[in-house]
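User: I want to check something. If I give you two sequences, will you return the structure for each one separately, not as a complex?

Assistant: Yes, each is folded on its own. Here is the first sequence with its structure:
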Amino acid sequence: MGSALTRSSPFWRLVLAVALLLAALSGRPALAIYPERMVRIVVPFAPGGGTDAVSRTLAHEMEKDLGKSILIENKPGAGTIVGTQAVATSKPDGYTLLMGTFANAVNPSLNAKLPYDPHKDFAAVALVARSFNIVVVNPKSPVRSIEDLIAAAKANPGKLTFGTFGPGTSAHLAGELFKDMAKVNLTAVPYKGAAPGITDLIGGQIDVMFTTVASAAPLVESGQLRAIAVTSVERSPAFPQLPTVAEAGVPGYAAESWYGLFAPAGTPRDVIDRLNMSAASAAQSEAFRKLSINEGLVTVALPPEALDRYFHDEEERWRRVISEAGIKVE
């Protein structure tokens, strides 16, 4: 949080002004002319989901800072590959951006051949926020804690089931990581999204889900689901009573989703810096704070280098889980 505030402070705006002056004196294109027209953020998911909501809120706040409209273009398909490829082949001028997510870090391990290079074809802009999943069970279940879940799984190897949003999704990999680190055997049951999985969890057809906060929070509040833990590194301010999976019995466990802006490789550094500062400011807005509570976000708003390192680390971490679990996308 401190980094974001520092980067949007008057000091950093002074640094940006000095950079503009130096750019002008050196004969490089002046950043002052960017943006001259509408900016487009490609969201590689259908409208209405969490990524769409985060992108639209961020774009609305960035518009105020940049002084130009920002269009959200939804390009779902092939597990985010369609939208991601569209940005990879776009002109590197700062007018076409990608809202990258957890899927971008796992796709290289799930797909033998991608139509783009996840590192060479993109330039990191800003790590906007991280998010976590929440472990939920049926309120009638005897499982009331992570310790109970582990005990039940060990007593009935392979018989307990956990719902996923499909192979390689955050709900799936969070469950696979839990199996690996807790040394238990749970059976994954894939669904076409969170809603049908939660419906079956409420109905007693499956035993547990490592689902998103947005999909589960209202049902937890109404008593239709029981939350037993969060998958984040630290406890969430939104659910202070819930332990993390790590502190509840699986030391070192953490499974996060995230949101980060990328531009096509070759985008001028001064344009990237301008976008980064705008995103950092937008992520500190009141509108984004309200969204963060609903979506279970931890706002970070970090610089390009931080997103680049985080992306590499996430890619390597999930590569091991995917390989050991033998996960494949058909």
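And separately, the second sequence with its own structure:
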Amino acid sequence: MADLQHELHPFTEAGELDDLAESLPDPFEEPYTPVTDPDGTPLERAHALLAAHPVADGYSGLPWALRHRPWCDLELGESAVDTDVPRLREGRVGALLCSLHLPEGLDGDRAVGATLEQLDLVKTVVRRHPEGLRMACTAGETTDARNCGRIAVMLGPAGAAALGDSLGILRSLSALGLRVLTLSGVSWAGEAGLTRFGEEILREMNRLGVVADLSGASEETIRRALALSRTPVVCTRSAARALRPHPANLPDDLLTELGAAKGLCMVPLTAEQTGTTVRDVADHLDRVRTLAGPQCVGLSGTFDAGTAHPQELGDASCYPNLIAELLQRDWSEPDLALLTWGNVQRVLRGADFTARAAQLRREPSTARITDLDG
């Protein structure tokens, strides 16, 4: 039962680590140098800003969309999907989180196998498009890819069912490059919140540097994860429930709590969750920024996920339209730089830092669900 010692003896170094994390340099603490011409049109200014601070897109459904199209050419352009290299470049996307989510009904070994197949497909697609795409796991690797003129591709979010209730599978997926895991749809992360095994999963995610995604999780799971996680959490597809009563959207109190915990709410560009126009999406971004803070809001295109998109935001090339709308609403350039690129970098850096520290003090957990949840 050595694995239960973590619960019985809280981290003695937690305060020290938090102080050290706070002391790390942040590029946005320096005076911001404007990158756009104040006399330019909003769209011209949007293109200029995105050239310096590209979009880190928090959710792409491309892997599932490509499962029957293994020989597509994303570098020349692929009309069968919403996402290809030309449109990513036109939209000034610098990094892309590729969802490994599965259709409902897949669980157990089938979920594990299907997740591994999607993970392999992403890596295969990236290898076949080396001039446009590059795999990345860390904040540094995403920046390196951008500096080399490539679009960084990261793995995740995956569904919690992909673990098959096994910490060993979590470690294996992490070793293969998984960066984000959604905590919902399983017995240990349900309506009642995280069970003891669910809490152990989250601790092991912190130790590995796998970020917790809470979109679609119950409010009890979200609150427990916010309290327990030593690294920032994300909601990869959540907007403001006060503006659109979708179950994956967050109420105002949870948006405030997410901001206090320095988490990240990534607003999806879907008609179902945010509305049918670019102005509707901007309304959600305004509200999330007001409640959670400018350092806690990001973007998720949610392209190729089988959902309808607002006008002027139909595919991955359309991000400048949204940034132009926000510029007209007097969003500052520093806040926009955080929205598009900086906030995702902060979360990835925080996850990497926490993982390095945790691995020095904690061995891999060998707990099983029967040990903790009976």
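Because they were folded independently, the notes below concern the second chain alone. Confidence is low (pLDDT under 50) at residues 1-25. The longest helix spans residues 333-361.
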